[in-house]
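Researcher: Please translate sequence to C-alpha cells.
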Amino acid sequence: MLFSAVNHERNLSRFTSASGEFSHGAPIDRVARCGSSASASFMIQSSVTIVAGTGQRIELKRALRALVGPVRVEPGCLGCQLYEDVEQPDAFSLVEEWASAADIERRLRSDQYRMLLQLMESSPQPPKVVFHFVDRTQGLDRVQQARLQTRSSAPHFLTDFRPPNPA
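Model: Translation complete:
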C-alpha cells in the first residue's frame, strides 16, 4: 500500500488540493482552528484513510468533504483536513486533531462518526485508522536548535546541499 498512517508525515507531499493542483500536502479544505482550547498536556490526532471502490471516487470525496465542516465546529476540535493521494487517486485521508481524550471519545460516539464508519465499510480495502497521542509539537526552532548543536562536523543537508552540476 502506498499510503499508510505510520508514514503519514512524510507522505503528505503526495497529496493534492481539490482542484488537482500539486500542493505539497495542502489540505483539500483549509484547516480552521476551532473548538475549545487544549486543557490537557497532549493532543490527539486521528487519521483515517479510505480507498474508494471502482467508480466511487467522486462520491466518496463528496461524502468526506461534507464531514469536514461539521467536525471543525465540534467542541475540542483543533483542526480537520481532508487529503487526496496523488499516487493512489482513489485514497483519501481524513486527519483530525482533538484537544483531549474526552473530546475524541465524544467524536467516536457521534452520529457524524457513524457516517464515517459507513464510508469505511463501503471501501473495497480495509481502512487505516490510527490515533496519535502527541505531547508536544516543535517547528523550525527545533531544526535551528539541532543545527546549532552539530555545526562542527560533517556536511548537513539543510545548509550544505548543492544541486548537481549539469554537465
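Researcher: Any highlights?
Model: The longest helix spans residues 57-72.
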